[in-house]
Amino acid sequence: MEKLFIADEKDVREGRTMDIYFERTKRIIEASGLSGTKVCAEITGSSLPKGWQWGVFCGLEEVVRLAEGLPISISGVPEGTVFKTRTADSVRVPLMNIFGAYTDFGIMETAILGMLCQSSGIATAAARTKIAAKDKTILAFGNRRMHPAIAGVLDRSSYIGGCDAVSSMIGGEIIGKEPIGTVPHTLMLLMGSNESAFRAFDTVIEKDVPRIMLIDTFSDERAAALEACNIVKDLKGVRLDTPGSRRGNFKELINEVRWELDMNGHKDVDIIVSGGLNESSIADIVDTSVSGFGVGTSISNAPTLDLSMDIVEKDGQPISKRGKFGGRKFTYRCPQCFEMGVSLKEDDRVSCGCGCDMEFIETEILRDGKRVGKERTPTEIRESVLKQLKSNGKL
Asked: CA–CA distance from 169 to each of 46, 152, 173, 181 (Å)?
């Protein structure tokens, strides 16, 4: 059987996924007798996509697992930090600093940036979607839009950003939660009717799996909703996935289904909607009686963040390429407005334009290849994201 076109973990750890010029640079440095040159390399962002004013830093734990055992040290902002890429005077804010001989970590640059850029983009999109949903339930349904090799990354990042549940088994294992799903149109089509599909699901699938039935395959959504209520004893909810070409006014359709359910004594049955949703379309219907949203492409296909790695010190002396600020910098953030600041000192007083003193938010992550502190669970990181968004008035 032919191998799939994906890199396995061994390929990543051996640097086979890197841009080739990093491997050539390593050989040149070694041949020039500069292998012992110590550097500080910082990871920063130049700007955020789509006019976003802030991002959610994600992917750090995967970077730590990649870097463990290497003779390097890492410090940076905690995973889940809500950040801005630049200070008020346009200095790029270091999200992470790597210390050590460049030849010990340089070939990992491509992988490190990829882990951070994509995960942070997805987490940011998920957080923005959670805000648009006014803290209603968001289900991550985006795996089918991306390569299956990164399903776990997609689900973990979506969950950390604010999604309440994920749909893949590997994603569920990574976040420590049971994956959530409803019913696909395929089941209805193969069973031949709503009634047959509803009964089969309720008979075959374990009772601890929430019963959420899809109601727009064959018939009027109102009639199918009542049919589901009558057939499935412990019905948790109904899902509307009606395509745009058949929806008409989606808000009115949702309200009609809710009215029909309530009028017939099913006020406890939730309405879940899905199908091409994004933060804008969710904002349009969030004030209806919808209980939750299944969101796919707009989160899983979120734009990656434009993060880069740059050397800013060599053997303890500031150095940088044109357009970058040399020297190891320490990262601060205002606890009120979340503006960012940097200083050349760890214990400095950095003031924000709003009048508050900024807080030093950087932590030691890896020391000489060994993890510093306890690994945080995805749920702990997610809770910190939501807490920041609420404290900043976004949720």
From this structure: 35, 9, 6, 10
Q: What gap in Å lies between CA 239 and CA 182, rounded to an integer?
A: 8
Instruction: Measure the CA angle with vertex 179, ends 176 and 181; round to 5°.
Output: 165
Q: Judge contact between 174 and 155, C-beta under 8 A.
A: yes
Helix, strand, coil content of the chain in percent (nearest 5): 40, 20, 40
Query: How much is the mean pLDDT over the chain?
Result: 95
Question: 146 with 167: CB under 8 angstroms?
Answer: no
Question: Helix 221-231 vs helix 194-204: angle between axes, to the nearest 10 degrees?
Answer: 30
How far apart CA 131 and CA 124 sit, in angstroms, is: 11
DSSP letter assigned to residue 149: G
Cα–chain-centroid distance for residue 257? Answer: 32
Tens digits of per-residue pLDDT, 146-176?
Answer: 999 999 999 999 999 999 999 999 999 999 9
> Could you tell me if 191 and 197 are in contact, meaning their C-beta atoms sit under 8 angstroms apart?
yes
Distance, CA of 356 to CA of 349 (rounded, Å) = 10
Integer CA distances (angstroms), 45 to 30, 167, 328, in order: 30, 31, 16
| pTM exceeding 0.90 | yes
Q: Which residues contact 92 (CB under 8 A, 6 or more apart)?
A: 42, 44, 45, 46, 85, 86, 324, 325
Of all helices (H) and strands (E), which one includes residue 84? none
C-alpha dist (Å) from residue 96 to 36, 40, 184, 351, 394: 22, 10, 42, 22, 25
Please tell me the distance from the alpha carbon of residue 59 to that of residue 57, in angstroms, as a whole number. 7
Instruction: Note whether 299 and 141 are within 8 A (CB).
Output: no
The mean pLDDT value for 299-311 works out to 97
DSSP, collapsed to helix, strand or coil, labels residue 379 as: helix
**DSSP per-residue codes, 196-237:** HHHHHHHHHS-TTS-EEEE--SSS-HHHHHHHHHHH-TTEEE
Q: What does the pLDDT look like over 259-297, one tens digit per residue?
A: 999 999 999 999 999 999 999 999 999 999 999 999 999
Distance separating alpha carbons of residues 240 and 275, to the nearest angstrom: 8
